[in-house]
Amino acid sequence: MKRNLIALAVLSATVAPLTAQANPKVYGQINLSAEAYEQDRDGSVNDQEFTRMQSNASRFGVKGEAELTGTLSAVYGIEWEVTADGDDISRLSASTTTAVDTNGDGKADSTDGKATSTSTISNGNRLDLTQRNRFIGIKHQDFGTIKMGKYDTYLKLAQGKVDLFNDFAADMQFTIAGENRINNVIGYESPKIMNTQFNIMAQTQDTASKATNGNSLSIVHHNEESGLYLALAADMGINGSSAVFSSRENDTMRLVGSYKIADLTLNALYSTSSAVVETKRADGKMYDDAETAYLLGAAYKLNDIVFKAQYSAAEADDTDGLAATANVEKTQATIGADYNFSSKTRAFVWYTMQEETKKVAINNIETNILAIGMETKF
Question: Main localization of the protein (predicted)?
């Protein structure tokens, strides 16, 4: 009997780590905020003022890594966004027809090279479980990871934690181009060498009507000991978001820097983006709809409280061919604070002011949002 117990103990000690490694991990977060929203439009009677409950990219997913050999493993992950407030399409009448976010990239129109999906939504009905990242791949401990599926471009991921209000209405995507999650990609992520990693992805051509096959790459240096984060990234021919202009096929560059000194973190980002295919405007000239943007931010940790401030701006490089109602500049200024109950739960408050400057001043828009909320991760 004693020998049997010893044998069982040895077997359990051997099998348990393998079983734990193979088991998938369920994870997620619920992030909700109550907000006061106000929008003023120059020369218009369509001003808005109301309160709302917002689900800020609440999500859940499953991910894992299964050992195949001593140096090789299979990696996988699948994630969905959920409408934690119970209603992600608010203030719609019973027969409103609107473009909705059916691919989980946080935007109403498709930015993945597919046709825009338009749905008729009755008040009280809603979309739930929208797609986020999902992939499968092979990881080698010495040579890096190859994975395929749908996930954030490496230019988007290059932001690191620079966006202090990520996932909120004050997200930097209001002024910074390139916040894209795209379909039909295969990517390679190198191992870290001297705190530096290289990443590259390519998109297959799956749509006959718009054969989008863009590429995305980045080089990232992250030295946690020194508090330094640097990244240089590019999207080439990616059909996705811009800031000043509408969604289109873009060439985008992004330079990111962050430095942590004791309890103070300083962030900066610079971006350029232009259309791959130039457009012919009413004056007969060709325009590439180029835009330039930047972001500056700072966070200071005081015990369990983190104070945050961020400013970003984007502007059209050439406004000659723009229509009177087109944006020539967007700015966003946000302040806020987090109270961390634990490493997984926080309460937060923030206020943002967004301004859209049009070519003709009478079309300008100013939006103010005050939010208070809570997030917990599992």
Answer: membrane
19 within domain boundaries: no
**How many domains is the chain built from?**
1
Contact 150, 135 (CB under 8 A): yes
C-alpha–C-alpha distance, residues 325 and 316, integer Å: 13
Number of alpha carbons in the 13 Å side-chain half-sphere of residue 272: 7
Taking the alpha carbons of 80, 83, 89, 95 in that order, is the dihedral positive or negative?
Answer: positive
- Cα–Cα distance, 266 to 226 (Å, whole number): 13
Structure tokens of 180? 């894209």
In a domain, 205, yes or no: yes
Q: What tokens were used for 159? A: 């932001």
Q: Answer yes or no: are the C-beta atoms of 363 and 329 closer than 8 Å.
A: no
Q: Identify the CATH number of the domain in which residue 340 sits.
A: 2.40.160.10
Domain coverage including residue 294: 33-56+148-377
Q: What is the pLDDT along the chain (378 residues), one digit of tens a residue?
A: 455 444 444 444 444 444 445 689 999 999 999 999 999 988 766 889 999 999 999 999 999 999 999 999 999 999 999 999 886 444 333 333 334 443 444 444 433 333 333 333 333 445 678 999 999 999 999 999 999 999 999 999 999 999 999 999 999 999 999 999 999 999 999 999 999 999 999 999 875 455 568 999 999 999 999 999 999 999 999 998 899 988 889 999 999 999 999 999 999 999 999 999 888 777 778 888 899 999 999 999 999 999 999 999 999 988 877 887 888 999 999 999 999 999 999 999 999 999 999 888 888 999 999 999 999 999
Partners of residue 30 on adjacent β-strands: 376
188 bridge partner residues: 146, 200
User: Is residue 313 in a domain?
Assistant: yes
Residue 229 lies in a domain: yes
- Other Cβ atoms closer than 10 A to 128: 12
In three-state secondary structure terms, 92 is coil
Token couple for 326 = 């087109």
